Amino acid sequence: MADQNTSRSQPNSYSEVLTPTELFAARNRSHKIPVRGQKDFIPDGSEEQKQRLEQALDEHWNLISEERVERLGSLVKGVWIPEEQIIELETPAGKFWQTMGFSANGKQCLLPEEALFLMECGNVQVFYQGLPFSIQDGYEKFLSVNSISFNQYLVYGHLKRLGYVVLRFNPSSEPTAYARQLNLPVSKDRGQKRKRSPSPSRESKTSGETTVGQMEQDHEGEKSVNHQTEMPEEEPGCKQEVKHKEWWSPADVSTITESSSTTGSCPWDFSSIHFPDVGSVLRFHSKDAASLTPPDPSLLPGAVTVGPCDIALWRRRVNLKEIRMSHSDQRKEDEKYRRKQDINKDPEVRRCRTWSEYRQLMTKRRSDVGGRPAHLWDREVKPLHDPAQAIPHEELLEKISIIKSTNLLEGASRLQPLDDWRISFSVFQPDSVSSFKKSSPGRPYVRMVVCSFDGPVPDLSALKQLSSQSPEVPLVFAAVDHGDISFYTFKDFHLPRDVFP
C-alpha cells in the first residue's frame, strides 16, 4: 500500500529503479499483442461499431505507452559518437555480435540501425554525455541523412525480426566486370575482419566519381579481351580460298566467345554446320570423286592432322537408282496432269467476257499460288515473314518474335550513374546464422533496394545500373507505404523456343 501511495503522490517523477510491487506487476504482465479482428471498411454509425473502435484504440495506445522492464545486468552499454555516426560499446557484446557490429581500433562498435534495433529488443542501452537514450531519442539521432533513412530502417527491422542476417551493401567488396570475366580470385583483403560499411546516403554522394572511373576500366578491359579473341582470325590458315563448297564451315571465334558470355546457351550455330552429303557427291559429280576434301586446319587442334575422307565404301552402300513408276501409275499421272491443263472446263475462265478479265484472273491465281495475295502484301501492314523464304527455325522464331528476350546486364556499363537509386542492404537467409561469419559472409541471398510508394517506379536505366552492381545476386525492391512493406523483383526472361539451339 505504501508503494501505491508513493506512486500516486508523485505521478510525474521518473526513476530507473522500480519498487518490488512494480517489478511483480511487470513480471506478470501479458506479452500478447492485441488482435484487432476483421477490418471495418465503411462506418455505419452504430454504437456497437463505435465501441469496437474505441476498444481497439485503447489497446493500441496502452501497448505503445507501456514501459519495458529489463535487468541492468543483461543490458550492453554503449556510447553514441555523433561525429563518426557509430555507437561504441563499453561492455562486452552478447550473442548478437555474431551477425552484427564491427571492430574499430580494438573496440566493438555498432552502426546506428543496429543499435536502434537492439534498443527496441531490450539488449543495448545507449548513453550520450552520461544520459541514457530513449527509443524516441534513438529514432531522432540515429536516423539521419548521414546514416540511413526511416524507410530503410523499417525494412531493416522487418527483415531482422523475420530472422534474416542484414548487412549494409558495400560496393567495394564486389569484383569488377573485368575481374569476373577473367574469373580472378577474390582479394585477400576482403577476408579480414568486418570493417565499417559506408552508409547508403554517403555512398550516393561519391557514387558518381567512382562509377565513372570504374566504367572506363571495365570498358578498357572489355576492349582488351575482345582484341585477344579476335587474334585467331588473322592466321593465314583461316583465309585459304576454296574453289567449291566444303562440308565443313569455319566458325567465327569472336562470335562464339561473345555469344557464350552473354547467354548461357550453347554458343554453336547449328544452321552453319554442314555435314557431308555423300549421295549428292556421287550423283552430281563424276565417278572419280572418291574422297571428301579435308577440313580447315584452323578448326583442328595443333597436333592433329586430317587427310581426305575416302567415300569409296559409301559408294556401294548408297542407293542411287531412280524411282521408276509402273505403266498404269504413269498413265494416271499423265491423265491427272492433262485434266489440270484443260482450261475450258474452268468455270471462272468461262465467266470471263474479255481478255482483260482473263488476264486479271490469271494474275490473281499466280499471286495466290506464289503465296503473296494482294490483300496481305500490297498494303502498308504486311506479315512478319514470307512463307516462300526458307530459313532455319531459330531465325524464323527470332524474326516473328515481337517481345524479345532481355538481359539486364547488356549495355549497363555505358549508362550514366544515378543518384536516386542505390542498393541498401545485403540479406542472408536465416538458416545460415549458425555458420555465418562476418569476416567471410559469402554470397547473399538477395540484395535490397529500398523505395517508397510515393516515389517513382524504377525505369529500365535504373534496373540496368543496379543489376550491374549486383550481377550474381538477385535484386529485391522493398516498397514502403506508411509502415507496410511490399517486396518486388525484376528478372530476366527468355522466351521458350520449340527448337534445338
TrEMBL record:
Keyword Magnesium belongs to the record: no
Region (Disordered): 180-244
Domain annotation tRNA-splicing endonuclease subunit Sen54 N-terminal: ranges: 61-128
Basic and acidic residues: compositionally biased ranges: 216-225
InterPro entries the UniProt entry points to: tRNA_splic_suSen54, tRNA_splic_suSen54_N
Family designation: Belongs to the SEN54 family.
Name of the protein: TSEN54 tRNA splicing endonuclease subunit
